[in-house]
Design brief:
- The chain is α+β, with helices and mostly antiparallel strands.
- It has a single domain, classed as C8orf32 fold, CATH 3.10.620.
- The chain has nine helices and 15 strands.
- The protein has helices spanning 7-18, 140-146, 158-168, 174-188, 200-206, 211-224, 291-294, 314-328, 341-384; strands at residues 35-47, 53-54, 61-63, 71-78, 82-87, 93-97, 102-103, 108-119, 190-191, 208-209, 229-247, 252-269, 273-277, 303-309, 330-340.
- The strands form four sheets. Strands 1, 4, 8, 11, 12, 13, 14 and 15 form an eight-stranded mixed sheet that branches.
- β5 (82-87) and β6 form a beta hairpin.
- α3 (158-168) crosses α6 and α4 (174-188) packs antiparallel against α6 (211-224).
- It is globular and about 110 Å long.
- Residues 1-8 and 20-32 have low confidence and may be disordered.
Length: 385
């Protein structure tokens, strides 16, 4: 594991933690029609230190989002050539840009990327405990991958294990166990945002955490009980919203326009298999724990899934990256914008044609003024005669 993870990924996930859209339990209405979006990101690296910054391949890479049955995303434009494609340790597609290999003190470099998104209707099947399978029917190959210990999944922590097993109450019905975890987190963990993701033992002991912190705690509980799960993050279209963020002692600044970043858990609940479980952005209220599955942000066509996080050192790599930026005085500024495609097309068309429209109006106005002036002059001379 390198010290500096992919810069674009680290920043995107960092923004997840501080977006104002998720300051508590929020209501969201799931939409059922297809929609097209444009996502644009601009990142500027500035070396404010005293030594050269040698950019690694991870620093030069950008994510390409996810493609599945309900969304298609493709990179439509990049200000720097794409050198090659690759996947990270969680299978997320990435593009390596041909950025400079080194950045001298006082120098900066900027890259821009645009994505076209086709978002289709998505739905959650009817869920009930009577039809849910028991823990013993979960495939072992899934447990081997999605129930293991890891950087963010502290399944061997005694306090976390005791909490998970106590909440589960020796229940073997998968949906029933997940519902108990959801209810417990809603009742015991308050919403609070930090400048980076937290370990589940920190969220548990502090009784506070934001969207991905609570999701990580849920995932850890699930893995302890043998239920496969992982973290998923994405962006949500929020018309008219704008937010300026500054963190890590001003080392990272971000501007979000009509976009918010969010995290939720993906949990394997047979026979329905993988289902999103959202603890902080869901409609219907907290009266029914199944609302976290049925009407979470991931069910909305306005939510675009960005990447899966299961094997990567999510918490540790973010903290190492923060320390690297602060110690070496590297400043990163990122601007993200999300728009409906037809509105973006209209906006760009207006920008393109408005100057010509003003010129045309000026020509027509000038011509009409000259014509009317000439007619008025001729008419006055006629009246005088």
């Amino acid at each position: 594991m390198t010290l500096r993870k992919t810069t674009a990924i680290a920043l995107m996930l960092f923004v997840v933690l501080t977006s104002s859209a998720f300051n508590g339990f929020t209501l969201v209405k799931a939409e059922l029609w297809d929609e097209n979006y444009v996502i644009q990101t601009t990142v500027t690296y500035s070396n404010n230190g005293t030594t050269d910054w040698n950019l690694t391949e991870e620093d030069q890479a950008i994510s390409l989002f996810m493609n599945n049955t309900w969304q298609t995303v493709y990179l439509s434009e990049s200000s720097w050539p794409v050198e090659r494609m690759k996947t990270d340790e969680d299978g997320n597609p990435m593009a390596v840009l041909r950025l400079p290999k080194s950045l001298e003190p006082g120098k900066s470099v900027t890259y821009k990327a645009s994505y076209n998104v086709e978002s289709r209707a998505r739905s959650i099947p009817y869920l009930d405990e009577e039809n849910s399978w028991n823990l013993t029917r979960i495939p072992e190959d899934l447990r081997d991958v999605y129930c293991r210990s890891g950087d963010a999944w502290q399944i061997n922590d005694p306090t976390l294990r005791e909490a998970a097993l106590t909440i589960a109450e020796k229940d073997t019905n998968v949906l029933s166990v997940v519902k108990k975890f959801i209810t417990w987190i809603w009742n015991h963990i308050s919403y609070g945002s930090y400048e980076g993701p937290r370990y589940p033992n920190e969220t548990l002991s502090g009784k506070i955490g934001d969207c991905d912190d609570q999701a990580i705690l849920l995932i850890t509980f699930c893995r302890i009980c043998g239920i496969p799960s992982y973290l998923q993050v994405g962006c949500i279209y929020e018309f008219g919203s704008m937010m300026w963020l500054s963190s890590w002692n001003g080392t990272v600044t971000s501007f979000l326009k009509q976009i918010a970043w969010h995290g939720w858990a993906m949990v394997y609940i047979p026979p329905w298999e993988w289902l999103p479980v959202d603890l902080t952005y869901v409609s219907g209220g907290q009266g029914d724990p199944l609302n976290a599955i049925r009407t979470g942000a991931a069910t909305s066509r306005g939510t675009i899934q960005y990447m899966n996080i299961s094997q990567r050192e999510y918490v540790a790599s973010t903290r190492k990256y923060r320390d690297f930026l602060v110690e070496n005085r590297i400043h990163v500024h990122q601007e993200d914008e999300m728009s409906l495609a037809f509105l973006k097309f209209l906006e760009e068309s207006i920008k393109m044609w408005f100057p010509w429209f003003l010129i045309a109006v000026g020509i027509i106005t000038g011509t009409l003024t000259a014509v009317f002036g000439y007619v008025w002059k001729v008419e006055r001379q006629r009246l005088k005669a």
